[in-house]
Amino acid sequence: MDKVLVARRVASKLHATEAAVDAALAEATQLMGEMIRGRQETKISAISTDPSMAKVSAAIAMLAQARTAMVEAHAELDQLRLRVGIRTRMDGSEEKVEQTNANLREVA
């Protein structure tokens, strides 16, 4: 099996997973905001909603940890890509490190 094709399949799943974690984190924070607004609008005691708010807060913290883990996994997979000799970026573009550096100029 071609290493580049395998890397692209892995990259596709990696990007989809990163997007899913980000989406879940965004939804959870919006849920927390709606819970707060809903409690205020209905004039329900903060004490009565505290247990559910604590659970949602814990879920947000876990999602943030999951996001950090995915970012770290992405970096490790990128290093693995280089170690196994794949020079094509996982997004399909070729690495152009030398060309990028050639376009840089020193400023005063």
Summarize this structure as a short list of keywords or feature phrases.
mainly alpha; 3 helices; 108 residues
Spans with pLDDT under 50 lasting ≥5 residues? 92-100
Helix content: over 70%
Order of helices and strands: HHH
Residue fraction in strands: under 5%
- Our measurement of the CA-to-CA distance between the termini, rounded to an integer number of angstroms, reads 50 Å
Which overall shape is indicated by the principal axes computed on the Cα atoms? elongated
What summary fits the major beta sheet?
Answer: none
Describe the protein:
The protein is 78% helix and 0% strand. By secondary structure, the chain is mainly alpha-helical. The protein has one domain. Residues 92-100 have low confidence and may be disordered.
